[in-house]
Amino acid sequence: MPSQPSRELETFSNPFPNRDYTIRIKIPEFTCLCPKTGQPDFATLHLEYVPDHNCVELKALKLYIWSYRNQGAFHEAVTNQILDDLIAVCNPRFIRLTAEFSVRGGIYTTVIAEYRQPNWNTPKIVQLP
């Protein structure tokens, strides 16, 4: 049976909850519709997060992203909605979503939204000799 788009994000337990580590996911085929013209908008999404107790399950993420294909949304709104939904299910220590939209009318748009848990600071990078 073919898959269907879904707004249900699933998670699994972080296998290393006592360690800060970064998960990076590139989603090069994001599509939604321009709410003014109804024409498709294309973007590459770059998701970067430091999990706490849960990680997002990738197939569920794929189906979730697919659910935006026929939805009209401004770039700023859709980027922040996706980020809010990921925060709601994962509650990561840190998360950043960068949405790089393809050119439309000679204009490129990149929207960057991020969240960090209170009192969580990015660990310092150790410079090796």
Task: Describe the structure in your own words.
The model has no long low-confidence stretch (mean pLDDT 94). The protein is of the alpha+beta class and 129 residues long. It has a single domain, classed as 2-Layer Sandwich (GTP Cyclohydrolase I, domain 2), CATH 3.30.1130.10. The strands form two sheets. The chain has a four-stranded antiparallel sheet, covered by helices on one side. Helices cover 19% and strands 38% of the residues.
Blueprint of the fold:
Blueprint: E1 11-13, E2 23-33, E3 40-50, E4 54-56, H1 58-66, H2 75-90, E5 94-104, E6 107-116
Antiparallel strand pairs: 1-4, 2-3, 3-5, 5-6
The arrangement of helices and strands along the chain is EEEEHHEE
Summed up, the domain count is 1
CATH homologous superfamily, by name? GTP cyclohydrolase I, C-terminal domain/NADPH-dependent 7-cyano-7-deazaguanine reductase, N-terminal domain
* Major β-sheet strand ordering: 2-3-5-6
Poorly predicted spans: none
Distance between the termini: 54 Å
CATH C-level class: Alpha Beta
Mean pLDDT rating: 94
How big is the Rg? 16 Å
- Which class do the helix and strand fractions yield? alpha+beta
CATH topology: GTP Cyclohydrolase I, domain 2
**Which word captures the global form?**
globular
CATH architecture: 2-Layer Sandwich
Work out the number of β strands. 6
Query: Considering DSSP H and I runs of 4 or more, what fraction of the residues is helical?
Result: 10-25%
Provide the β-strand percentage band. Answer: 35-45%
Pfam families: QueF
GO molecular function, one term: preQ1 synthase activity
EC number: 1.7.1.13
Binding site for substrate: 56-58, 75-76
